[in-house]
Design a protein that fits this description.
This protein is of the alpha/beta class. It is built from 17 helices and eight strands. A four-stranded mixed sheet has the order 6-5-8-7, covered by helices on one side. Strands 1-2 form a two-stranded parallel sheet. A hairpin with a 2-residue loop joins strand 7 and strand 8. Helix 6 packs across helix 7 and helix 12 runs parallel beside helix 14. It is flat and about 100 Å long. The protein starts with 8 loop residues before the first helix and ends with a helix.
């Protein structure tokens, strides 16, 4: 027996937002859930379904069934091609999850979910975000070694009640900024921007700078009061960072949350930082941010010299920093312990700008400060020259082969566009590396004379 009263598939689907909740009767469900706030969909059914739901909703209910429509990206292969079993380029998400974990896969999708752009999925990208999650896990393990239940009590940031170091003020200010950024991005469906902001904060600011700079304090080298205050800030920052990360990394953040003293229940029920009455969530210190920008810039400048000159981290350096600006000199002097510790220095001299030191060696410029690094007894100039020349020679061979391929008309016209682009990109990267090594070689030769 065939039904005679039938509707076209997309016609019946167009009634879905209200027909599923008791319409045409006026029900509690209909009153509560119509209209809804947002619809998440792919672009390929915008006209088949989304537009028709809006037409029917406006006609029968007097208003559109949803306020926002978020058109999500389509996941393609790493070359941007649509996945197809016949092409053999299908990436099975279950295999990716088994290999790299659910959180790494979820964070990857969020990080590349830019509005209006499809996602080029590759295992290397997922693997990269697994490294990020490992970084978070190891940072939390380190923090939990020092955080006790005493440190997890709520604290006030009133100056009379709490004394903060530069690095503590800086990380709290940066947490405030990233919390605002993430909240705004989530409200605007900019999931990739929110994920990117959290990635940079956790990896580069919290792990690379804050945790490294507070180690002397955590190990009691600056007194018990300082250790107590810093562990309190560490607890607060880790706790709120986990909350911000939870929508993107639900499983790992939940696991760490239950190991963190002073937390109760599931992290899903925790209050988002800027929705909290805690005054620490609203802490902003532009002076601390500007000061740390200078200090980290000086340290990075010295580290760049290490990298360019192939100086191992175990070699302690003599460094002279010169600046005509009095404030710059005073800031560096005041926080010289951070520079000495993180840059691996034996001596640090801070002076007014003048003549270049006789032992100057390598140099770097950071803002209005000039950094002079002594290389006496640090580098074997002849040995380093030989090493650089050998490495440049290897790169020249690779460049010759790539240039030959790129000048081949058959290759350019017959090879897939993605393959040609990969060869061009490889050529660009190697050429850039060769030019950098040649610049380093010129420096070494100049210093060795």
């Amino acid at each position: 027996m065939q039904e005679t009263d039938v509707l076209d598939t997309w016609f019946s689907s167009a009634l879905w937002p209200f027909s599923t909740m008791g319409w045409p009767d006026k029900t509690m469900l209909l009153d509560k859930f119509y209209p809804t706030s947002a619809l998440i969909t792919g672009f390929d059914i915008l006209f088949f379904w989304i537009a028709r739901m809006m037409m029917m909703g406006i006609h029968f209910m007097g208003e559109a069934p949803f306020k926002d429509v978020y058109v999500h990206a389509l996941v393609r292969d790493e070359d941007g091609k649509k996945m197809s079993k016949s092409k053999g380029n299908v990436i099975d998400p279950l295999n990716i999850i088994d290999r790299y974990g659910t959180d790494a896969f979820r964070f990857t999708l969020a990080a590349f979910a830019a509005q209006g752009r499809d996602i080029k999925m590759s295992e290397k990208r997922v693997e990269g975000y697994r490294h990020f999650i490992n970084k978070l896990w190891n940072a939390a393990r380190f923090a939990l070694m020092h955080i006790t239940r005493e440190n997890s009590k709520p604290f006030s940031l009133q100056p009379s009640a709490f004394s903060l170091s530069l690095t503590d003020r800086w990380i709290l200010s940066r947490l405030n900024s990233v919390a605002k950024s993430v909240s705004d991005d989530l409200d605007s469906y900019r999931f990739n921007d929110a994920a990117g902001a959290l990635y940079r904060f956790v990896w580069h600011e919290f792990c690379d700078w804050y945790l490294e700079s507070i180690k002397p304090c955590l190990y009691g080298k600056k007194g018990e009061d300082s250790r107590q205050s810093t562990t309190g800030v560490l607890w607060f920052v880790l706790r709120n960072t986990l909350i911000l990360l939870h929508p993107f990394i639900p499983f790992v953040t939940e696991e760490i949350w239950h190991k963190l003293p002073g937390t109760e229940g599931s992290i899903m029920k925790a209050v988002f930082p800027l929705d909290s009455p805690d005054d620490a969530c609203y802490f902003h210190d532009q002076e601390a941010e500007s000061t740390m920008e200078l200090i980290t810039g000086i340290i990075s400048g010295i580290r760049n010299v290490r990298g360019e000159m192939n100086i191992p981290p175990s070699s302690l350096l003599d460094v002279n920093v010169q600046s005509q600006d009095t404030t710059t000199r005073e800031i560096i002097k005041q926080h010289r312990d951070i520079v000495v510790n993180l840059a691996g220095l034996k001596n640090l001299a801070v002076e007014q700008a003048g003549e270049k030191p006789s032992y100057s060696g390598a140099t770097a410029i950071v803002g209005n400060a000039a950094i002079f690094v002594s290389l006496e007894g640090i580098i074997d100039f002849a040995k380093e020259t030989k090493r650089l020349e050998k490495e440049i020679g290897k790169l020249s061979v690779e460049l010759t082969a790539l240039s030959k391929k790129l000048s081949n008309e058959d290759f350019l016209h017959k090879a897939p566009e993605t393959v040609v682009e990969k060869v061009k990109e490889k050529h660009r990267v190697i050429l850039e590396k060769q030019q950098k090594l040649e610049a380093n070689l010129d420096k070494i030769k100049g210093l060795g004379n």
